[in-house]
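Bumping with the actual sequence this time:
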Amino acid sequence: MPHDVLVLADLSISPFRIEWLARDLHPWDRDLSLELRTKLFHEQALRDTETALRRLFSVFPGLEQIAFRVLEPAAPSRVIAAGNVARGEFEAADSFPSLRMRLHMMGVRMAAAGGALEPVAA
């Protein structure tokens, strides 16, 4: 979908820190059970996280580390994934076939489906 993008919530250049809102589920998935919607949302957020990190390292070739947080799209915008990923760890994790294992090896902390890592400070 052409307008299906992540929304930037915060950005700092030195040190490089970024925060974005996870995408909500597509409208055609909203009739699914709560359990399945939660699982799909969480998986989508993790795929988007890996893609966003890959793009950031690609666009900024001199960037050696990215500190980030992924927030739920709706209030209270709990943190669902966070990390401080070094370029070398990102590249080394590429050899793992599992998305969750790749993210874990990069140092990404992930909330369980439907959970949160920590509340967002006001």
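The tokens above came from a reply further down the thread. The chain has a mean pLDDT of 87.
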